[in-house]
Structure formats: C-alpha cells, structure tokens
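Data card: per-record layout.
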Amino acid sequence: MYKYIIAAFLFISAYACSKADLQPIGAKSDQALVQDIVVSDTTQNDVSASKSVPKIVTDPVTNVEKLASPNDPLQIIVTLKPGTDIKNLNVRFVMSSQSKYAKVSPVLGHMGDYTNGGTYTVTSQSGKNVNVYTLVIKGS
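The structure for this 140-residue chain is written out next.
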C-alpha cells in the first residue's frame, strides 16, 4: 500500500516540477537592474557615507521596470565613512523587485579589496537582459 502512495507522490511531484519549468518568463520577472548597494566591513557594519545608483522607474503602461535615464552610464559610486579599510570590504548588490532572479558576475558577497572598484555584469534569468555596471568605491 505504502509503495503505491509513494509512487503517486513521486509522480505528482515530478509532473508539477515539469509544468513549472514550462512556464514562460515574463518581462515583470526578467530584468537585470541593481536597485541599491550594501557595503560593509568585517563586523558587518554599513560603511557607506554616500552612494549613487542609477535610478529605476516602472513603466506605467507595461508595469515593467526600466532605467530612468537609459543613456546614462551604469555607474555605482560609493563614498566610504572615514577610517574604512577599502581593502577589506563586503559588497552586495540589492536587485530590483523584477530582477530577483538575475545573476551577478563576478560574484559579490565576500570580503575583498575594492581599491580599483570593478565591472559587474548583471544577467536576467532568461539571459535576454544584460547590464554592465561599473563600481567605483572612494575613501572619504
């Protein structure tokens, strides 16, 4: 009896997963936009004195997020609080609500030296939308 219940459960689980994979990725969940940045030190304290991230707006007709100024460079600038060690920071991008499945490359979220900032590619879930952000981190 139990083997029939387990077999039915496995069949239903496999069927449900395969149907979920067939669902189309819509524009409202397939963006590649950074909404904010979090810069912290070894004690997990926010060390940002100021920051500038390209503004995102939502199109009133399609309800899809987009850059407010698409022709401006995708540059994120962070000025650190006085005394912050720029060579030992943890940087993390906060993705927009419609970019929650996007991938950032190279991967962020670990301690590192950000003296030279860097270039980061944000790719949407489908790979259709790609944005390249330049990160500049300045000491105070």
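Known properties of this structure: Residues 2-21 form the longest helix (20 residues). The mean pLDDT is 88.

See the next section for split statistics.
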